[in-house]
Amino acid sequence: MTEPSPADEGWIDEHHQGVRYGLAGQVLVDEQSAFQRITVIDSERYGKGLLLDGCWMTAERQERHYHESLVHPALCSAEAIERILVIGGGDGGTARECLRHAGVRHLDMVEIDGRVVELSQKHLASLGAGCWNDPRFRLTVGDGIAWAAGCDDASYDVVIVDGSDPAGPAEGLFNRSFFEHCRRILRPGGVFATQSESPEAFREVHIATVLLLQEVFGHADPLYGWVPMYPSGWWSWTFAAIDGPRYKKPDPQRAAAIAAGCEIWSTRWQSGAFEAMPASIERELQT
Amino acid sequence: MTEPSPADEGWIDEHHQGVRYGLAGQVLVDEQSAFQRITVIDSERYGKGLLLDGCWMTAERQERHYHESLVHPALCSAEAIERILVIGGGDGGTARECLRHAGVRHLDMVEIDGRVVELSQKHLASLGAGCWNDPRFRLTVGDGIAWAAGCDDASYDVVIVDGSDPAGPAEGLFNRSFFEHCRRILRPGGVFATQSESPEAFREVHIATVLLLQEVFGHADPLYGWVPMYPSGWWSWTFAAIDGPRYKKPDPQRAAAIAAGCEIWSTRWQSGAFEAMPASIERELQT
């Protein structure tokens, strides 16, 4: 947790387990919503950025790593991609990357904190870009866990969880009951994706999340990449599906349609990122 | 550059382009050698750590990422591994990982700053571990660039450059003349390895280094991994060889002999790390 303050010599830091990661800049907004503390800053290195409860979430010039890694392995591999559910993702970056796929006809985004959406639309407009006005996009401000529980079976082709760490409003996004609903509401051939924390700074949560998804879905695999502003900079996203690890096989046509607009993601990068599991994590997942 | 100081509320930071990465702890040593400022700290999260000229180099509980990534792709793939040259590497971690390979008969380490070796032996003893007393190990305190220029042709099976950023004493470790000598002193079937900076925080140096090594050796490929304490946490190592990209094909017997002792490296991890090239870097390397 941090105490971002414009008085601290111009640095805004996240503190985590005796480590701090700070950006030089100034605080633009620092307020308490009904759910969490929301801080918007303007940084020298990465432009405007967002913290929730003192933890770095995203920044204008450091958001592609996270959003491309979370979205494209799922959107390139699900059997169909007509109906998408995004839980969380209030900054708009995940919806924006999904809507780059022409096959998407309807995207529900369920974000618990409407104030995150409002502040992102105002200060981080490049994150959501055109998503807010896309006719395929529908925002619901509400509880994504209740939303998943209330959906009919087989409602979506892809379910994406874009939440923060498992504390505060995001805590329920990492348990069996929630994952079972996510599986239930997927159509056959569907793919589930979630951020799954750092294998270094949140090692136990990371391993527990992967193992639980493997139990619930039958097939789940973590992909390892980078988000420099998150604790340790080393991050993971985990993909799950009922009918085999189809998330490892991107559709060539869908991949080709988005490739030129990606900074990080490519079919090559993705195949490497699924393989780049550190030896000690691999041993622990196998036992 | 940073100003590590025990008075700064107990934080020691590296500052880089409007970003700071700090560890909570205390400064044990802070002195100027003939070549650079050397700082040894004791941190809560990663144990004792080393900074050179205010930049994080290594720490007791965060050093495996770097050393395993640099050493094993080379030591597992060179045709022979009898004679090894390490340039830099004064903390001893690179030599330690090399000497885990039973096939190594002689290892020359040429470190410019003897004070780094002395302070590492005293404060970071687990880094070098048994290397300092291994009969196969020979330390020379001197200029690695001059050493490479002075070697006979085909002197080593593997040449490893374990230097700091291309400023100060390490500046000459990133240029054509030095790389040409590294190639010249390699035996046929030999492999060259160097840290090659961050594709995020040192993007231009990273790309220039890879391109230059491809020109000089004919074959060179970067591998992407993590060093949480380095700028952006996202790091690269580049491997080169004259007779094709043999560094991508680890010898199964050598790999099996070291696998159980590795935290990060495995043949699986390595194959992924060579593929996990971000799309924008791949485009730039191809043009």
Task: Give an overview of the whole structure.
The structure is a homodimer of 287-residue chains. With 287 residues, the first copy, chain A, is of the alpha/beta class. Chain A has 2 domains: 11-59, Spermidine synthase, tetramerisation domain (Spermidine Synthase, Chain: A, domain 2), CATH 2.30.140; 64-286, Vaccinia Virus protein VP39 (Rossmann fold), CATH 3.40.50.150. Chain A contains 10 helices and 12 strands. The first copy, chain A, has a 7-stranded mixed beta sheet with strand order 8-7-6-9-10-12-11, sandwiched between helices. A 5-stranded antiparallel beta sheet of chain A has the order 1-2-3-4-5. In chain A, α2 links the parallel β6 (83-88) and β7 (106-111). In chain A, α1 (64-75) packs across α2. Chain A starts with 10 loop residues before the first strand and ends with a helix. Chain A binds chain B through residues 11, 13, 17-25, 43-45, 200-201, 224-226, 228, 232-234, 259, 262-266, 268-269, 271-280, 282, and chain B through 11, 13, 17-25, 43-45, 200-201, 224-226, 228, 232-234, 259, 262-266, 268-269, 271-280, 282.
